[in-house]
Amino acid sequence: MPDLEELKENRFYKMKPQWKGRCSCGGLLWLNMKAGSVNEKCKHVDCMKEFDVSRICDTCNNTYEFDDALCTECEPIVIELTQCKNNMINADKVLKKANRAFKAGDISETEWKKVTKDLKDESLRCELKVEEILGRYTN
Ligand SMILES: [Zn+2]
Ligand SMILES: [Zn+2]
C-alpha cells in the first residue's frame, strides 16, 4: 500500500465545495462552523436559514458531503496509479541489482536473462497502465 504522501501527489481530482453564496431570501450566506464541520448560514436576521455545503469531485462529478475528503470513485484509481509508479521504480532497482549480480558472476546468464525479461515486462505493463490512467483522468 503506497503511503499517504505518495497518494496525495498522485491525486488528480479535487473535491470542490459548492458554496451557494446567497440565500433564497436574497440575503448573503456566511460560513458557519457547526459541530466540527461547516455549513452556510443566512445573515438576514429574519431568516437565519442554514444550508449544507456539498462537495463535487471535479473528475467524476459525484456529490459528497462537506466532510468527505476523498472520492470513493476516483481514489481506488489514484491508489492503482501510485502502485504502478512504485512498481516501476522497484523493477528498475531490482534490474540494476540483477545486472550487478550477473557481472559479479553470482547468477547465470540464463537466470539473468529471465529476471531481466520479467522485470522489463512488468515495467512496461505498469508504464502502459500509468499512461492509460493519466490519459483517461487528466487534462
Ligand atoms: Zn435567508
Ligand atoms: Zn471522483
Keywords:
single chain, 139 residues, alpha+beta, 2 domains, 3-stranded antiparallel sheet, 3 helices, 6 strands, binds zinc ion
Could you explain how this protein is built, in words?
The chain has 139 residues and is an alpha+beta fold. The chain has two domains: 14-65; 75-137. Helices cover 47% and strands 19% of the residues. It contains three helices and six strands; from the N terminus they run H-E-E-E-E-E-E-H-H. The chain has helices at 4-10, 75-103, 109-137, and strands spanning 15-18, 29-34, 37-42, 50-52, 54-57, 63-65. The strands form two sheets. Strands 1-5-6 form a three-stranded antiparallel beta sheet, with no helix packed on it. A three-stranded antiparallel beta sheet has the order 2-3-4, with no helix packed on it. A hairpin with a 2-residue loop joins strand 2 (29-34) and strand 3 (37-42). Helix 2 runs antiparallel to helix 3. The longest helix is centred in the middle third of the chain and has 29 residues, at 75-103. The radius of gyration is 25 Å and the shape is rod-shaped. It starts with a helix and ends with a helix. The mean pLDDT is 94. Bound molecules: zinc ion (2 copies). One zinc ion is lined by residues 23, 25, 27, 42, 44, 47, 49.
